[in-house]
Write a structure and sequence with these properties.
By secondary structure, the protein is an alpha+beta fold. It is built from 3 helices and 6 strands; from the N terminus they run αβββαβαββ.
Length: 125
Amino acid sequence: MNKFEAERRFIQRMKDNYPPGTRIMLLQMGDDPRPIEPNTKGTIAVVDDIEKVYLCLNNDVPGQEAAERLSQKLMTHGVSHEILIPTRKDWNEDRQAACANAPHKSAEFFISKNQEEEPCPTLQL
């Protein structure tokens, strides 16, 4: 099984195990400047899948040659994709120019199909 098939199977397991209506509870959000309160509860509306892969490599000869090689591999597996090219040397420089030191967001949830059940293993986003 190749990596793309493994990812597709993982997404299908997520859809099967956590259908719309599954209750979730946020444990923490790390260093987010505008955190949601811990223990906030919610309900899953949908588990989406990736329809397209975006190749985001450096804007130099080695980076773009690598993007082309990856593009060929993705094409052989029938994976929809697009090559994106940063304005500057790399995507980090573009990000820094757009929003200096933007915070990295993360969240941690307990997942349970029913509010009364024991929480399932933690899902780290």
